[in-house]
Design goal:
heterodimer; A: Trna Endonuclease, Chain: A, domain 1; 29% strand; B: alpha+beta; Trna Endonuclease, Chain: A, domain 1; 5-stranded mixed sheet; 12 helices
């Protein structure tokens, strides 16, 4: 992992939160290289003991927030609540669930009920 | 057959050509190749009942991968090894792709703006755009129908309702051909095309093939065709160190040496299920997209969708072991009917059959934990499957 080009950008958070390192690394690569997000920034969410990301999808202007986790973790409502608080109470955040075979499943979380767009 | 043959050309044509290609590329079910004997066995061999094939040498590709502790996986970077492991048994997944590593090809497609051969991700994107358009058309038709019905009621006449598009009959409107690019507009790109290809540096392929620890252990211990390297020293790991590292991976990061080895280690429980289905000939892939542990393919993902979705449910022979466990094995505690119903619904919707694989974990009171020092302990686990199908009495007579 150390020799991967993405390592430098994530090094401080990878070392601070080792149990979330795999999920952080995989999600960062997916967003920056595969999904081609723009203006990707790494943020620190100490209440959830991990880093998170903020960026824009290609061809859009909205700032989106992504918080990674791994499939083996057990998350609570207060965990989500603290994530929303720390990231500045955005209208929704994406939870990136990482697996060991490198599949990532994104879930869109909103603090309240949301009507489907169509 | 004639209707298949009438479709020609490269690209994504279904039918005879594609199937033939796939049968040729994905001919070998495992990385090891057992060559068929060239000539028929002589009468002497026949009389002795010896098959000449047994004396033939097995062709071993000797692939290599590096262990990454943080992601609990093995990374294969060598492109020859990636191709072999994917094409012979569909092992692993490209970490920037949905199946086979195709990130570099997709990036080159975007750069060259040719888009003649679409990768599976690009086909998926196209399909999603079409579905989005269908939903917009349908929503508009519904809104129009409601407005028309409303107006008709007020005017006291019959409503002339517009047709609501259905998924089966809706066709995408032919639009301006828009090959993949989202960055450069088409006319600008054509002028720059030649210069872009010369000025831009060659793109480094940063993707690797990622094997789960179960797949890697099957390849290195079961088939002996994968060498796993230690990440810091790049030295090949011995079977003993692979066996203990893979168990350590589930404790904490960094691994805690004070915990004794246990039979309910998630690596072991999942490996038992993986090895079981693999040895029966199924191609086993991860099932997170369908809320299950594994998907079983008869030949592979390129041939047909998975028929079975497997959930691994560990069963403790001795309940005391569960209480003293440092792991929280998912599926070990009794599940609720709503959980089971949800997973079954999700999979029936995509025409998959749900299989519950019960893996029995041996009791520490009966089997000595010394056995955990080698894969020989795997013989003490057992797997039983239960197939689940929803039964609707009103509709399922006969």
């Amino acid at each position: 992992m150390e020799s991967h080009p993405s390592y430098k950008a994530l090094e401080p958070l990878l070392k601070t939160y080792p149990h979330a390192a795999g999920a952080l690394f995989q999600t960062y690569n997916d967003l920056s290289l595969a999904q081609q997000w723009n203006d990707l920034e790494v943020m620190d969410v100490p209440e959830c003991s991990r880093g998170a990301f903020r960026g824009r999808r290609p061809k859009t202007d909205d700032l989106l927030y992504v918080i990674p986790c791994s499939l083996s973790e057990s998350l609570s409502m207060s965990w989500f609540h603290q994530a929303f608080e720390r990231l500045g109470k955005p209208p929704h955040i994406y939870l990136a669930i990482n697996t060991e075979d490198s599949s990532i499943v994104y879930y869109k979380l909103s603090p309240g009920i949301v009507k489907p767009p169509v | 057959m004639s209707s298949n043959r009438s479709r020609r050309g490269g690209g994504q044509g279904k039918g005879g050509g594609r199937r033939f290609e796939n049968n040729r590329i994905y001919a070998y079910p495992l990385p090891l190749i057992i060559p068929t004997p060239e000539e028929r066995p002589s009468s002497l061999y026949k009389a002795l009942g010896i098959f000449k094939g047994l004396t033939a040498e097995v062709l071993n590709p000797h692939c290599e991968g590096t262990f990454d502790v943080a992601t609990r996986s093995i990374w294969v970077i060598n492109s020859r090894d990636i191709q072999i492991l994917w094409r012979r048994g569909f092992f692993g997944k490209g970490d920037l792709s949905r199946s086979e590593p195709s990130w570099h090809a997709r990036q080159m497609n975007i750069r060259k703006l040719a888009g003649k051969r679409m990768t599976s991700e690009e086909i998926r994107e196209k399909r999603r755009q079409e579905r989005k358009q269908f939903k917009l058309d349908r929503a508009k038709a519904l809104a129009d129908a409601a407005a028309e019905a409303d107006a008709a009621f007020r005017e006291g006449r019959e409503a002339a309702l517009p047709a609501i598009p259905s998924g089966a009959t809706w066709k995408p409107q032919p639009s301006i051909p828009d090959a993949i690019p989202e960055t450069l507009p088409l006319d600008e790109a054509e002028d720059q095309d030649a210069s872009v290809l010369e000025d831009v540096e060659p793109l480094e392929d940063v993707e690797h093939l990622q094997l789960t620890i179960q797949e890697a252990f099957f390849l290195s211990w079961g088939l002996d065709c994968l060498t796993i390297l230690e990440p810091s020293t790049n030295e090949p790991m011995s079977l003993q160190s692979i066996w203990s590292s893979f168990q350590q991976v589930h404790y904490t990061i960094p691994p805690d040496p004070t915990h004794g080895a246990r039979f309910d280690n998630p690596f072991l429980v999942h490996y038992v299920a993986y090895h079981y289905f693999r040895s029966l000939g199924w191609v086993v892939k991860g099932g997170i997209k369908f809320c299950v542990d594994y998907l079983l393919y008869k030949r592979g993902p390129v041939f047909h969708h998975a028929e079975f979705a497997v959930v691994v449910l560990p069963v403790y022979e001795d309940p005391a072991d569960q209480q003293s466990s440092p792991f929280s094995l998912s599926g070990a505690t009794p599940f609720s009917w709503s959980w089971l119903s949800t997973i079954n619904r999700v999979n029936s919707q995509v025409q998959k059959t749900l299989v519950l694989a019960y893996v029995t974990i041996p009791a520490r009171s009966r089997v000595s934990t010394d056995l955990l020092s080698s894969p020989a302990c795997l013989a003490h686990y057992s797997v039983r499957e239960v197939v689940l199908r929803r039964f609707v009495p009103a509709r399922m007579r006969d």
